[in-house]
Amino acid sequence: MTEYLVRILKNDFKTATLSRGYKRKTVGFAIADSDTTALEIGDEPMQFHQKFPDVAVAVGEERIVAIPQLLQHRPETEVIILDDAFQHRQVNAGLNIMLTDYSDLYTRDFILPAGNLRDVRSSCKRADIIIVTKCTPGLPVEEQHAIIAEINPAPGQTVYFTTIDYGKPYHLFTKANIEITPGHGILLVCGIANPRPLKEYLAKIADSYDMLRFADHHIFHSNDLTDIRQHFEKISSDKKMVLTTEKDAVRLEKFVQELGTFPIYVLPIEHRFLFNEAAKFEASVTGFRSSAKQKKKKTFWLFKQPVWREQHALT
């Protein structure tokens, strides 16, 4: 969703992203440059940096401290997208976007440690936009209405629904595309919190697949490559491939010498709005920022996933 926001904003506004930089090997504020690695800023910020080299990508544990540092380095910045920061109330955001997983709605969850929420459910009142993510592609209108009724949005709040679309896999190093066919033998290598949608997708397009799962934000080491190769060799198909996620890919790129000729492919992912509401959502985002720009205000975005993703890596 952060990438989605970047795409609709970066051509009209000087845009930056600010993340915590979870599982990085550094601390404090950092801003990505041409020599930056995933170990220095984290996997997701590195993914942003590679996809949008013209966008400032920064990390910092304390958003309230990192924002002025970012503006000092990039004074031309007009929009800052705060990734996963809805609960950081020290920042008075111009627009709050709250995400909730279709299979784990915040209305049915509890705050840590009883549940997965990072903030109390009543905080949803601070959201301007609520997005139900990872919906089934053919979500019935009746279920849409039932979920909206359950969320019970406050006046001025808008509820949207999105699903996941997967693109054509590309080689980790050569970037060459490949078409997955039922005859492919696939080893899925991933370190993400919730691989359920990915597994459901592969079940539809492949006869079978094997999975080598790591903890969320896992930092790969040489012994992991040995595990990958051993699992790969056990696949009996003549057309074998390793498939991984974009987030995992930025942590595997450092092994170019070991994996450069290996059939390892990356599966791109993006959000798609249901019920033909993409234009409405994008208009609300760009319209807000255009209005703020006319008033000559510095504004900050907040983006939040109310499920505590780090907990899933421990279960």
Which helices and strands occur, and which strands form pairs?
Elements: H1 2-9, E1 15-19, E2 30-31, H2 38-41, H3 43-51, E3 56-59, H4 63-73, E4 79-83, E5 95-101, E6 129-133, H5 141-151, E7 158-166, E8 170-171, E9 185-190, H6 196-205, E10 209-213, H7 222-233, E11 240-245, H8 246-252, H9 256-259, E12 264-267, E13 269-273, H10 278-294, E14 299-304, H11 309-312
Parallel strand pairs: 1-3, 1-4, 4-14, 5-6, 5-14, 6-7, 9-10, 9-11, 11-12
Antiparallel strand pairs: 2-3, 7-13, 8-12
Helix pairs in contact: 3-8
Cα-atom Rg, whole angstroms?
Answer: 20 Å
Helix/strand/pairing category: alpha/beta
Shape: globular
Q: Kindly report the spatial arrangement of strands forming the biggest sheet.
A: 2-3-1-4-14-5-6-7-13
Number of helices: 11
Q: Can you give the mean pLDDT?
A: 90
Descriptive account of the structure:
- It is a single chain.
- The chain has 315 residues and is of the alpha/beta class.
- It has helices spanning 2-9, 38-41, 43-51, 63-73, 141-151, 196-205, 222-233, 246-252, 256-259, 278-294, 309-312; strands at residues 15-19, 30-31, 56-59, 79-83, 95-101, 129-133, 158-166, 170-171, 185-190, 209-213, 240-245, 264-267, 269-273, 299-304.
- The strands form two sheets. Strands 2-3-1-4-14-5-6-7-13 form a nine-stranded mixed beta sheet, sandwiched between helices.
- 31% of the residues lie in helices and 23% in strands.
- Mean pLDDT is 90; it is low at 297-315.
- It is built from eleven helices and 14 strands.
What key phrases describe this protein's structure?
single chain, 315 residues, alpha/beta, Rossmann fold, 9-stranded mixed beta sheet, 5-stranded mixed beta sheet, 11 helices, globular, disordered C terminus
